[in-house]
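Hi there, hope your week has been kind to you so far. Would you mind checking whether the tokens look sensible for this chain? I owe you a coffee for this, so here goes:
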Amino acid sequence: MKKLAIITSHPIQYYAPWFRYLASRADFAIKVFYLWDFGVTQQVDAGFQKSLQWDIPLLTGYDYEFVPNVSPHPGTHHFWGLQNPALESQVRASNPDAVLLMSYNYASLYRFLSSWNTRQVPLLFRGDSHRLLPPTGLKAWVRRQFISLIYQRYAACLYVGKANYDYFRYHGVPANHLFFSPHAVDNDRFFAQSQTASQQAVAWKKELGIPDDHAVILFAGKFEAKKRPLDLLRAFLQAKLSQVSLLLVGSGSLEPALKSEATGYKNIYFAPFQNQTLMPRTYAVADLVVLPSYGIWETWGLMINEAMCLGRPVIASNHAGCTQDLIHPHENGLIFPAGDIPALSYSLQEAFSDRQRLQQWGENSRNIISHYSYTQATQGLSNALYQII
């Protein structure tokens, strides 16, 4: 059996279940190398601005090692946050047939890329960047040349969606070196908890004080500028929807501004950060889920995957990397121009103009997301692996 080493920053709630899936079902063996222990120890999340530890198992069902991180300020929010001098020796000791990197823009990973002998053991890369906001100017040209050189180090790249595919092609990766390995969440967990989550959501809605006869628009995530929750709040106020409430779930730097702007208005509710075991209930309380992100940093938007697993219609800005794949306008949701509050307000009005159609959009969401699962992600990885070995 071929052996694949996987290098990733830290245990992530979306990736760990996939690694478990690979260990139990793939026709190759994996070993994961983590460069930081966030997620499995109590630490402050910069975006949520609170200390947290994920409450689902992230280190069971597959082989892994932690590589000591000597950074004085560990984290993924800056270049020097991952400094792991032993990375290359630990990976080499596992005697892999290939190595998969899940990111590269950190000190340790640049060092690994520059020193690893790719002729002996080939490298793969799985990324999710996009060019939905094409940069211009000399700096952008220089960056394109630099990134294109980096991708020449990889024997194959895995793309998670259409926008990501275009990004790789823009940086010179040949089409026959690209393999579709879609962004996915643990669909089976959300599917299995759908009925229970719906029951829990009824009680939670009462607990929050949302009227029983109100539909719910949900934002769940970090209250930070790039997620643009203020855009959604303002669009909701402009839309003047009848018997509809807005629920903002999470925490972050914009929380005081959100609550200040919501003061004096009815039908706007807040709930604190919800850990992973509560996310099915969180989406189940919603009649519509919105991701209003702005900028290049919303490379995908996995909350859309999760919401669709619960059969929810979705609205997202055109800056979210997932929109070309997951949102089929007027079939399971709508797409609006990022930062355009009147357009978002109109999208909310359009969504709620036909409640029966909105419910059908949710059912369509569940069908669409079934094609973005760990099964498809694994098939793409397997195809890439066996082409390069």
